[in-house]
Amino acid sequence: MKPICIFLLVFLLLSGCEDIFEQDIEDASIEVIAPKNNTRTETGTVTFLWRPLDGARSYRLTIVSPTFAGASRLVADTTLLADSAHRADRFTATLDTGNYQWSLQAANGAFRNKEQVYTLTVDPPQADEPSELPKPDQPSETEETDRESGSEETAIQAKSKNPTATIAQIIQAVQATPDVRVGSNVPATIHDKHDASGTDAGTRP
Q: Do residues 177 and 196 lie in contact, with contact meaning Cβ atoms separated by under 8 Å?
């Protein structure tokens, strides 16, 4: 009978040792790195990150929408275990557009700290602004320059083919060329010069 009593006594002592040597974390708070309280972010993946708390063996993270007081959706409720190989200092979730609240609490074999609650708002992604396109009825500066150059070249070609042509004949040849208009380099009103006999000034009878 004595061996059984001794065994039970040793078992009870060993069971109570964990509570004796656990660090009291009831008044400790966890330092949250991201997202801070009242943070706004865009739809997508959100990483919840915090600094490990001394004496904590696990962390419980809960995410609800829109609030804990009026939760209509439970997004996550998970416990992360911390040991020598795992820091248990982060959690990743994909969140849609909406309002959220999330909480974090640390615990060990004997104690747990006060649950910390944070508010998070997820906005829809911002649309890219469309670039302005030129109006189809407005020619660009390059097209305008090309047209004026075309007018000059057409005038030169007409003059080279007929050296005795009058200015009025050159203008008529330029206007007859497709997609070419008389530019600023050719006067809109030109008076032909005629001699007294009625022939062109540049020709002889």
A: no
Answer whether 107's CB lies under 8 Å from 58's CB. yes
Q: How many CB atoms lie within 10 A of CB 45?
A: 9
Tell me if 185 sits within 8 A of 145, measured CB to CB. no
How far is it, in rounded angstroms, from Cα 91 to Cα 116?
16
Q: By the 8 A CB rule, do 45 and 132 touch?
A: no
Residue found under tokens 């330092």: 31
What tokens appear for 107 in the block? 């615990």
Q: Which of 15, 115, 16, 119 is nearest to 66 (CA)?
A: 119
Mean pLDDT for the stretch of residues 101-123: 97
* Cβ(75)–Cβ(95) below 8 Å: yes
Tokens 């708070």 belong to 29
Amino acid of residue 204: R
pLDDT for 128 equals 72
- Global pTM reads 0.56
Say whether 62 sits in a helix, a strand or coil: strand
What's the pLDDT band for 201 if we cut at 50, 70, 90? Answer: very low
CA dist 76 and 63 (Å) reads 5
pLDDT value of residue 145:
57
What residues have CB less than 8 Å from 123, skipping those under 6 apart?
Answer: 40, 41, 42, 43, 97
